[in-house]
Design goal:
The complex is a heterotrimer of chains A (359), B (308) and C (259).
Chain A lengths: L1 H23 L9 E7 L8 H11 L1 E7 L3 H10 L6 E5 H9 L19 H4 L5 E2 L2 E2 L2 E13 L21 E4 L2 H11 L10 H9 L5 E5 L2 H9 L5 E5 H9 L5 E4 L6 E8 L7 H11 L2 H11 L3 E2 L2 H5 L6 H5 L4 H4 L1 E2 L5 H19 L1
Parallel strand pairs in A: 1-2, 1-3, 7-8, 7-9, 11-13
Antiparallel strand pairs in A: 3-11, 4-5, 6-9, 6-10, 6-11, 6-12
Helix pairs in contact in A: 6-7, 6-15, 7-15
Chain B lengths: L1 H14 L1 H4 L4 H30 L21 H4 L2 H34 L2 H12 L6 H12 L4 H9 L12 H24 L4 H9 L4 H28 L4 H7 L6 H10 L4 H28 L8
Helix pairs in contact in B: 1-3, 3-14, 5-9, 5-11, 7-12, 9-11, 9-12, 13-14
Chain C lengths: L1 H26 L15 H7 L2 H34 L5 H6 L2 H5 L2 H15 L5 H24 L4 H9 L4 H30 L2 H6 L7 H11 L4 H23 L10
Classes of the chains: A alpha/beta (359), B mainly alpha (308), C mainly alpha (259).
Chain lengths: 359, 308, 259
Amino acid sequence: MTVRLSRRHVAGLLSASTALGMIGLPLRRAWAAETITVLNWQGYGTDEKWALQAFTKATGIAVQHDYYSSEPEMITKLRTNPGAYDVAVVNSARTQQLQAEDLLMPLDLSRIPNAVGLTPALRDNPNIHIDGKAYGCAWVWGYNAIAYRQPGIQTPDSYKIFQDPAYEGRLALLDDATNSVAIGALLTAQDMNDPKDLTAVSEQLKAMKKNLKLLWSSEDQWNKGFEAKAFDLAVYWSGASVRSRRTYKLPLGFTAPKEGAIGWFDTLGVPSSSTKAEAALAFVNYMIDPAFYVEWATKVGAPASANGSAMEKLPADDLNRTTHDPALFKSMQFMGPLPDERRQAFADLWEETKAFYAR
Amino acid sequence: MQGELAGGGLRQARSGRSLKRAMPVWVGTLALLLPTYLWLTLAIFLPLLGMLVFSFLTKAPFGNAKPAFTFDQYLAFVRQPYLIDVAWTSLRLALVTTGLCMILGLAAAMALKQAASGRARTILFMLIILPFWTNGLIRIFSWTMVLREGGFIDMVIRAFWPGAPSIGLLYSEPAIIIGLVHGYLPYMILTCFISLLAIDDDLIDAARSLGARNYVIFGKIILPLALPGLISGAVLTFVPVIGCFMEPRILGGRVGVTMGTVIEDQFTSAFNWPRGAAFSFSMLALVLVVFALFSSVLRQGGIAREDG
Amino acid sequence: MTHVARAFLLGVLLFLYAPIIVMVAMAFNASPLYAMPFEFSTRWFGALAGDAVLIDSTRNSLVIAVLTAVIATILGTAASLALERKRFMGRAILRILLLPPIAIPWIISGTAMLLFFFWTGIGRGFHAMLIGHVALAIPYVVLVVGTGLKNVRVDLEEAAQSLGSTPLHAFFAVTLPLLAPSIAAAALFAFAVSLDQFVISYFLATPGYSTLPVQIYTAIRKGFTPEINAISALLLGFSMLAILAFVCLSKAGGTLERR
């Protein structure tokens, strides 16, 4: 009896799994004439459904996505999947590293019509120009600065507030070595991309221990923590601060302190192994199109466009536009490329600081 | 080679006992082991061997990097003494979690055996596994809702005692341990329960009718029989917990720094694979040392089984 | 005693279900940030109905989890038989070799697999994910089935053989039925391991193919909506119904009894 039962079970299991396998098989849908693959963070502009539909309709090019969850992972995926990607979203601080490994092709910006509107500070930024060639098209930019709960906290004017005993247990820092080192460097008036005195940086960060409640690493964690009143004071991303205020109605203020904001910009690059560079450039052009940007920024919430003319299409009092004031370009430093040794030194410093926080 | 073995098995099955003696025992053993270990070799051992090689290099051999042979990555523990603190945190979390799981798991398995039988028992058995089928990340995020100030624990307490102070466990080591125990307790309950199935209730009744006290029954009958289950459960808890990183990151806040998070940082942020790999293999070594100590203690206590 | 046992079990179940109850409750809460006070809404289930990506990836997860459970259980049970029942050189080493898949953090196994599969031409895709998932599930199966095997007496099978059964028949007739609860538990574990696994899926999936845990993991960066809670709640509900139906319909209600 038992034997028969178990045999029937096994047969049942087998046929069930075959059936499931067959449902799983027709995964490939019929694609349009040409399909390009984009490598990006998930939910970061390039994969908006409405935008892709419009793009495919206009050009006949279909777009599919693969995602990464950290920059090293993006680089690993580019290395181990030659030919798989046609467009990659690359933090400009990583462009030189990728170019050194021949993972990106130089772009002829004159073949991207919308590139004429790009802000020169980004378009011609040394981060992405090597030997006079552009290895990426500036796409969006933003900065990391201070977010604070309103009402209750006066607009802070310095990162020093992170060490103010009045905010014991109310601080959330971004769990990111480069960003933390940058804050320490700015507090000690050093070059944030190459601070010479790392001990001073470390001391500044360690002085925040009493205030520190948690280290955040995702926008989701930030929003849920702020909503639950886990912290009142934090490092935050400019674009995310707009979403938090506009979409989730969180009561926060966002400000760049006098030491300076920590700027960054992302580019759209074409991997050197792509065989569909034409289609890729068409997509890049669409991604910096003011019409697309305005819809993205107002419907969903986006960082600032590298295309100045796109920013000007937003209403003058638009939160995104006021948060990303072009005047910032004059005072703000962008995160630059880091040689391996320095990156490792930053990582070690931050790891040691975190262990100090945990003690 | 595998085909040959399978053919041998078939022939044996068809002609029954006449050929049994002709086929050495080791062929059967090999046929049982080969699929699993070939699979593990392809998916785990060979890839990890690559990582092991990396851990002796100055940098990962990509692009223009010119890696050189070095022991440096393994010396990080000496150069950066704070890592010893971190390793101790991981070990402590793993020991406490495993200990709590063993106590709760064995008790729950005994309760399951005693309190229910037949269908009710099967249903309870499944109910214990079901939370496991929910994604781990979601479970951890849900714990933040339960544990935070003004969270569900506080709400329940305040329903009975208005104005009670907040428990506010979130962002502390107890919060990490609660999350970990929750994640691994089902393993322990089930492995203990499987072991307890072997206990004959008549034996316990007989012992009791002869006047044996409960603790004697527990010590002399239940514990020795439950031991294989406790050990398997402990392995399935201790080994993954020592490398955990999601629970410390999300539930631990400032205190959530473990070997798991350090290793993850080496891969996702510092981009130093050799160092990350060296840390993982050091951790594996630590696990093996703990096991060696543990099994020699068991053997000296005379309770280890014939295997080992 | 039975009352104490029942009360204790109830306590354990409450602990196990505390976050699950919260998860389900938040699927019905209007706030996308899990904000209190609770406000009943079915909007997330509505959103889920229109989210083809999430539904597709859930189906992919289930397919891969079922296949993983079947393959890992068969392979692992066989290996466990050899490791428990046979004596041979290197048995201790083979056992220790089961530890790396669970001891080495996923991110390292995942990276290692991605590189190795790239170098050897195995590549990425469904097959690669399955290889990875099964490998991670095997140690769980071997350990759990091994625990059960310690209780199944060898002499029963030997008795059957001395009465004329072939070893294979003796195994299927005597040992397998006694081992059924352990094998079932092992399969359920393997299923759970696969359903939870995101790092390896993440590294090995081809563009356009995704699983539920990967969706959850990547969504964290931007903020996942309670849609994720909704689909998890649905999965949980269906599993409960399936289990209830299985238990009520199967005549062998006492599979977990001692034989």
